[in-house]
# Entry
Amino acid sequence: MSPIVRFAPSPTGRLHIGNIRTALLNWLFAAKEGGTFLLRLDDTDRERSTEENAEGIRRDLAWLGLNWAREERQSARMDRYAAAAETLKAAGRLYACYETEDELERKRQRRRARGLPPIYDRAALKLTDAERAKLETEGRTPHWRFQLLNTEASKPLEPVPTLISWMDLVRGDQSVDISSLSDPVLIRADGTPLYTFTSVVDDIDFAVSHIIRGEDHVTNTGVQIQLFEAFGASPPQFAHHSLLVGGDGQALSKRLGALSVESFRDMGLEPMAVASHAALVGTSNAIAPRAHLSELVETFDLGQLSRSPGRFDVAELRALNAKLLHHLPYDAVADRLKAADASGGEAFWEAVRGNLEVFADVRKWWNVVAGPVTPVVEDAAFASRAADLLPAEPWDASTWSAWTDAVKAATGTKGRALFHPLRLALTGDEAGPELKVLLPLIGRTRAFERLNGRVG
Ligand code: GLU
# Structure
């Protein structure tokens, strides 16, 4: 059976380097294994989820080239969750609780004061029908908890360790002790189902075979495995990747806004630079630019993901972007050059690509070639002497050395004293692509004007 994976963002914000990495790992896995990649919008939080964010997520994924076979939205499946809740109630695993948040807090404090873990004491399990009816006539609406199966039916003073184990495709043998967890609330008093529950119902209904997600979900996995089993389903395989930290080793969570896919796009970064970084960071592969997702698919292997956190640094991403551009062949950018009105063809691209940090820099270099450039001329006599020595066209890559040899012979100037004023006059700039390749593109007419101090 071919694998089915899902990327399940909540449309409460935009995608950032952390969750785009999760998306990419899922997508690459599906591509490598001939599987299916689904997009699932976890939008049960109606207040914080917006259509604008959902649209932004689709746009960000599309920008990176991560296509999805199908989109599912949790908000469209409320009937299904209600039915699934009935199944759990009938199996005796979902029970009504009536405590208010204050009452729960007091219970937690009391347990802490006694040196016990602040987990829910399952008092609601002991309510009689009459007590429940009384609470409801008092106007209380229940929230619903999933009864974890652990060694003791009611949480004892000293919980007995109950290990839930699985073979994680990234972390190897894993066990979570669920005796240290409260029975999780699956349905709020207002009827909204919560992530732990809806996720499992969906994963069963959509036949998800592999759950690839961040290691912040490891603890959830213990609970979710029990939920799969409570529904009579066998749990899928799990792969929990490590999370990213900043260059300073600190968690990225506080800076994620600035690390959104949208901000990368606004910075003019290439989607494949972002994808290469996101796919290779925290793996045993070197972070090098790949021009196509297919190249990332070729080397993809969940087993290469490191258990230690990956380091993410925007400066590194920018450097990777430059590296990617420096090696892109003309065919890959011909249309974009036209669209940027930098129609110097292959010779222009090859002359300037090594000087680009972002693609939009081609405008600057196109301007240097096609003008108008305001030349910087410090020694007018020297520059105009050089202008007079410009050979007749046609020009090619050998023109520069033939010309500068002639200028050197005529003026006795050499080295930097020779080349630097010529660059300043020809380009108006201190540094840039090799003049050997730039000069034929600038052409004799403009070169002559600039050397004589005129805008050209
Ligand atoms: N909406 C959840 C999140 O973004 C999905 C986690 C999962 O993959 O199960 O954290």
